[in-house]
Amino acid sequence: xxxxxxxxxxxxxxxxxxxxxxxxxxxxxxxxxxxxxxxxxxxxxxxxxxxxxxxxxxxxxxxxxxxxxxxxxxxxxxxxxxxxxxxxxxxxxxxxxxxxxxxxxxxxxxxxxxxxxxxxxxxxxxxxxxxxxxxxxxxxxxxxxxxxxxxxxxxxxxxxxxxxxxxxxxxxxxxxxxxxxxxxxxxxxxxxxxxxxxxxxxxxxxxxxxxxxxxxxxxxxxxxxxxxxxxxxxxxxxxxxxxxxxxxxxxxxxxxxxxxxxxxxxxxxxxxxxxxxxxxxxxxxxxxxxxxxxxxxxxxx
Length: 301
What we know:
301 residues; mainly alpha; globular
């Protein structure tokens, strides 16, 4: 059974590791590290480890085009993680996880705006549902929005652009090369901004160091390797459903480990956003397949 479903199990583990990353960020912040210090360390670890593991593959496949492409998506990666990590300082890990996940709903609109690619009805429907979920999850009684939630939504746009351009560039460039370059660019940008804000000196508790090491080794390096290996054996639709569980795991772990309190309003908002993600990623293809199976069964009978 394990062999048959090893791809699905691997992607499930990837989603769990990414979900646990929200806890790692929260612990790192509470232990004294600044958001920029966290970004610099985690991406440096990821770039170095992947660079060592795939040294030969990178050496044989690196090109000027790959450097340019990797640098661009590295900028968006930095923007996304910077706003996500800073946003975590002003909101809860559970809300941060679900608001980050709306990036999958935004991606089709980037294609429409930049390349005039047509939008399908599922993209429009999922966007409307996502906006409703965001309103329920984030808006206060006076219709104002928490500063951390606002930053997290900017982060979602950063991830959306990152995902979109990664999809464009991966067609012509090596995936490992692009990843190492973008991690390296994100490291450099984080360090530059760190210097500008005079955050070079690190004053952190041991819990914070452990948290950022977890982010660099597990959430950045191992999770990427798992995703790359396991997606070869699993369809895009099924992969999307499994990986979208990242926000669910993030919320569950936030309640268990950080003792966050989930209100009914938050639960409803999270569920609505999750439904929007599933509709956007799968276009409800799994329902169509079930209907086809039922029709085939009826015709046989």
